[in-house]
Amino acid sequence: MDKPANPAPGFQRNPDKVITVEPYRGSVTVRAGDTVIAISTRAKVLSEPPYPAAFYIPFDDIDFGKLAGTEHSTHCPYKGDASYWSVQAAGEAGTNAMWAYEHPFDEMTEIRNHGAFYTSKVTVEAEPG
User: Fold this and answer.
1) What confidence category does residue 4 fall into, taking pLDDT thresholds of 50, 70 and 90?
2) Phi first, then psi: what are they for 114, rounded to 5°?
3) From residue 33, how far is each of 37, 65, 76, 115 by CA, in Å?
4) Residue 1 reports pLDDT greater than 90
5) Angle CA(109)–CA(113)–CA(119) in degrees, nearest 5?
6) How does DSSP assign 59-122, residue by residue?
7) pLDDT above 90 covers what percent of the chain?
8) Of 41, 71, 94, 100, which is the most buried if we count CB atoms within 10 A?
9) How many Cα atoms are found within 13 Å in the side-chain-facing hemisphere of 71?
10) What is the pLDDT of residues 95-111, one digit of tens each?
11) Is the pLDDT of residue 55 over 70?
């Protein structure tokens, strides 16, 4: 079996760490006030205890016209480098409200081309299907 081309150093150091990514059965809507930023029936739920679960929404279901890319970035030893976008309709509160791993480590390729939102900055509504 071939080794991954871009393995996560976090999993190499801590092989007992568990992060799950599963399809969400239902719809997820993200809004800032009355402005809808994303609607998806193809969201994924990423669980990484002890952190709260996060919805990752396909880029195709996100209205990037309502977002502005920022220079902010963070690094996760399990997922990779995250890029950030601000939700313009949310004003100052929407700064860096969405993040995405555009080039995740091999173990997290399921979240490539998906964005997640801080629930403290925008409203994320999940309706089970």
Assistant:
1) low
2) -130, 145
3) 10, 16, 30, 19
4) no
5) 100
6) GGGB-GGGEEEEEEEEEETTTEEEEEEEEGGGGGGGTT-EEE-SS--GGGGGGTTEEEE-TTTS
7) 95
8) 94
9) 0
10) 999 999 999 999 999 99
11) yes
Query: Furthest-apart CA pair in the chain: how many Å?
Result: 50
Cis peptide before 50 (omega within 30 of 0): yes
Calpha distance 94→88 (Å, rounded):
6
For the whole model, what pTM was predicted?
0.94
Q: Are 38 and 28 in contact (CB under 8 A)?
A: yes
Q: Is the pLDDT of residue 88 over 80?
A: yes
- Rounded CA-CA distance 108/9 in Å is 12
pLDDT at 2 over 60: no
Integer distance in angstroms from the first to the last C-alpha of the chain? 38
Residues 28, 103: Cα–Cα separation, whole Å: 24
Please, what sign has the CA dihedral across residues 60, 22, 87, 31?
positive
